[in-house]
Amino acid sequence: MNIDKFKREHVELLAAVTALRELVQSGVQEHADAIVSQLVTMSSAIKLHLAAEDRVLYPALANAADQQVAQTGRQFQQEMGDLAGAYASFVSRWNLVGKISKDPEGFRSDANNVFKALHLRVQRENRELYPLAEHV
User: Fold this and answer.
1) Left, alpha or beta for 50 (phi > 0: left; psi -120 to 50: alpha)?
2) pLDDT tens column, 94-125
3) pTM of the model
4) N or C: the chain end with fewer CB closer than 10 Å?
């Protein structure tokens, strides 16, 4: 299976997280408009990436002849549901400039937790899941 698109999207996602982190470090209140804009852009990209994984990647892994590969794919898909839900809740909490401006430290803390989990997930997919998918 060719997963170059998934890998490229991971690179783009991590770059978007870096851009968001730079905005936050420059001042949450001062850059609240840009932060919300970045979150909206990232959310669209993340939703498209997850949909593609659900339509293409996970079914291919689930149908693999190697039961270990199939099980790993199911496990990753289940875990992703949890992270996707956490990310959606995060965006819902912080989707307006006023929400971020009212509680910049709350936003910063919440963002650190969500994006750390997202970063770890991307790294795990790159290291564990994508190598399996390349051989399916």
Assistant:
1) alpha
2) 999 999 999 999 999 999 999 999 999 999 99
3) 0.87
4) N
